[in-house]
Amino acid sequence: MKCQQCQFDNEAGAKFCGNCGAALAVAGQTVTQSTSPVSQVRCPRCGKVNNAANVFCEHCGTNMSAAAQPVAPGVATVTVTDKKVSGWWWLMPIFIGWLGGLIAWMMVKDSDAKTAKTLLWVGIGFSVFWFIVSIIIAVVLNVLS
């Protein structure tokens, strides 16, 4: 599939350009494939196989220049998915606040970056909530006494 931005010849079904990283989701576009044999590498983020010449992953748009793994010819490819994060990590930010959110973020970020970010924000949110509640309680107690 040709990229509209840089005219790079990507594989059929690619979602992102392997050269410039632009999104390729254009309806009604004709598919063209390169016929020259190329070596392949595996994306460090999603695990999908890409041409070694790609700068960006055709499936997730990740920069391929860092830690792309070569794929041996004739080897079956396996799709790598994000690991499921345990629900127990949600207890850290709920009970410990921002510090628990930070700890949970550090432990989960490599498995599931989106959940890790949410855990961090939940910890910050609970800390702010309980800080405001404690100020309100202190003011109410001061007024009553």
3D structure, described in words:
The chain is mainly alpha-helical and 145 residues long. The protein folds into two domains: 1-81, no CATH class; 87-144. The protein contains three helices and three strands; from the N terminus they run βββααα. A three-stranded antiparallel β-sheet has the order 2-1-3, with no helix packed on it. Strand 1 and strand 2 form a beta hairpin. Helix 2 (98-108) packs antiparallel against helix 3 (113-144).
Short account of what is shown:
The protein is mainly alpha-helical and 145 residues long. Helices cover 34% and strands 6% of the residues.
The total of beta strands comes to 3
Which structural class fits the helix and strand makeup?
mainly alpha
Q: In the residues, how many domains can be counted? A: 2
**Percent helix range:** 25-40%
> What is the CA-based Rg, rounded?
23 Å
Judging from the principal axes of the Cα atoms, what is the shape?
elongated
> Unreliable stretches, pLDDT < 50, 5 or more residues?
27-36, 75-81
Mean of pLDDT: 77
Q: What is the first-to-last residue Cα distance? A: 75 Å
Describe the biggest sheet? Answer: 3 strands, antiparallel
Oligomeric state of the chains in view: single chain
